[in-house]
Amino acid sequence: MKKILFLTFFLSFLNPFYGQENSSRAEEIRKQYKIPELAYAVVSSDSIFEIQALGFKRLNSSFKANISDKFRLGSITKTITSYIATTLVREGKIKWDTKFFDLYPELKAESNPEIYNVTLQDFLTFRAPIPTWSYGNETPNQKEIKGNNQEQRYEFIAWFFKQKQIIKEKKDWYGSNPSYVAAGLMLEKATGKSYETLVKDLGKGLNIDFGFGQPNFTDINQTWGHDEELKPEKPALNYKLNWLSSAGNVNCSLPDYCKFTQMQLKGLLGKSKLLTAEEFNYMHFGFPEFSFGWYSEINENSGLKYSFHCGNPGTFLTKVYICKDINKAFILFANVQSEEADKGLMLLLAELQQQYGG
Question: Is 0.90 surpassed by the pTM of this model?
């Protein structure tokens, strides 16, 4: 707590005008776009220019926002999974061209022949030609998928690959959550560790407290998610999001995701001791539009190239936009998922980018 207070004081002293001005504007946006809690940060590879948490952990409550509040990351989890995979490839524990059925041969006979040769790289870059599936799908149900967390993910992917659905329209890439479920299973097999353990190990190395599921499930005083009608999500286990753990079920605080993002920026700029600049750039920009957990685009206003990802796990919204050319990243979290809230976050993002030259 002392570290957080000192950090807030230091940043306010460093940039009092921008910080105060943007905080007031962010509060206006929060209220206008009906966001119970809005948290945002602007960082470089070695500095935090702004970091704020505004509003309330739960609508119509007295639980005021705190900078240490945790948010469900949704699909931004894919940036974490891809980084873990990259480190394991570097360590020689698995290869980019390792095929799924090389590690799980027992599932091959009943699976769709269209994916017999799909590799770890294919899954992580959305190049595996498999259909979409998310927590909103009705099947399979909880009675069909049994066991502990790891066993449930195995049973789910076995079920999914048996469906033998064929993608008729060839695309450059296929945005399917099960791609990351399959990739997560491959990392588990290659290391002998559960996905949860791999994430926790990463967190220890970066001094980040990664969690899983709804933040308020393990701590009632943590952040509550809200649906598009602003109804708070009561503490509960979402078994379908557990199946998608490596695709979208990690949670963490804004300061902690800042650490992860700064590590990405350092790597892109060649300042990492763990991976080379080439490895980081391959992760972010190795393929058109979507690489290893990162989308990429050219900002139409500034002409700058960004790598980014956004999460929408039902009751939260998260966004991270990285521009290595100006050594800046913009992170925005909200504890509600709605079109209105998304518009508010994108408005704040655009204003922050303009403010910081992005």
Answer: yes
